[in-house]
Amino acid sequence: MGAISQDYGVLSYIRFSMDEQEAIQKKREQISRVQRTRRLVTIFLSIFIIFTIAALICLAVSVYSLNSKLDKLDQTIRYLSTHSAQGKNSLSYDYDLKQNSYKTDKENLADESDIRKVYLTFDDGPSSNTGKILDILDDYNVKATFFVNGRTDKHSIKMYKRIVNEGHTIGMHSYTHRYNQVYASREAFEKDFFRIRKLIYDTTGVKSVYYRFPGGSSNKVSNTNISDLISFLDKEKVTYFDWNVMSGDAVSNELKSSQIIENVMSDVIKYKTSVVLMHDAANKDSTVAALPALIQKLQKEGDLLLPIDKDTRLIQHVTLSDK
C-alpha cells in the first residue's frame, strides 16, 4: 500500500513538472512572439523615420530652389516697377535686363580646356564702400576696373588716387549719372564726358580711355541716338565696355551676398572672357560682403582676374554696325 502511494506521488510530481515545463515553454513562446513583434515594429518605425527624413530633405531642397526663383522674380518685378515709375528721369541703378539682346559672340563661348578671363567691374563710385572693396582686392592681390562718377569731396578724391595707385583701371561712367541730363543731347553728353575725364586727369594724372554708358549702350532712356554717342567716343579714342555677366546688385540693394555669388558663378563658366557688372555705391553692402568668397571661388576655378586694358576682348551690347 505504501509503495502504491509512493508511485502515485511520483507520478503526480512528474505530471506537475510537465505542466510547469509546458507553461514555461508557452511563456517563452509568448515572450519570443512579443520580441519578434517588437523587432518588426522597430524596423518599420526606423524605415518610416528614414523615409520621412529623406522626404523632408527633398522638400527642403525644393523649397530652397523655389525661394531662389521667387527671389529672382521679385527682383525683376521690383526692377520693372522702379523703371516704369522713374522713366527717363532715372538717376541710377536701373540697368536694362536684356543684357543678352546683343549678338552672341560664339567665339567667346568657353569649353573645359579654356583658361577663363574674368574682369570685375564696379560702377557708381566712389563711395564709402570703395575703400572696403579696394582693401579686399588688395588682400587677394586682385586688380579690377572702376567706372566712376564725378565727385569732388576729399574722400572721393582719395579713392580716385587709390584706384590708380594700386594698379586698378579707372574708367568713366559719366559725371552726374543723371539720365535726363547725360542723354539730353549729344552736346550734353559731350559736356558731361569732358567734365568727368578732366576730373580724373586732374586728380590722378590718368587720361582715361574707357567708358561705360549709364544704363549700358542698350539703355532705353537716351533721348539721343546711341550711335552718335559711340561715334563721339570713337573720335576721342575711347573704348566703351558693357557686360555679359550680372551680379544682380543693380536690381536690388537687399540682394543676399550668396545670391550675388551664385549669379556670377553661374554665368562666368559660359565665357572665355567675362565682364562682370558690380557696384561700389554706398548702398551696396551686400556686394562688399560677397566679394571675398566670390574671389576665392573664381581663383579656385583657375580663372584669371584682370583689370580691363587694351587687350581685353570687347563686350558691347550695341555697336555701330547694329544701328
Please, could you describe this protein's structure?
It is a single chain. The chain has two domains: 1-89; 109-322, Glycoside hydrolase/deacetylase (TIM Barrel, Alpha-Beta Barrel), CATH 3.20.20.370. It has helices spanning 2-86, 130-139, 154-165, 179-182, 186-204, 226-235, 257-268, 285-300, and strands spanning 117-125, 145-148, 169-172, 210-211, 239-240, 245-246, 273-279, 304-305. It is built from eight helices and eight strands. Helix 7 (257-268) runs parallel beside helix 8. The termini are far apart. By secondary structure, the protein is α/β, with parallel strands linked by helices. Mean pLDDT is 84; it is low at 72-103.
Notable traits:
8 strands; six-stranded parallel sheet; 323 residues; TIM Barrel; alpha/beta; two-stranded parallel ribbon; 2 domains
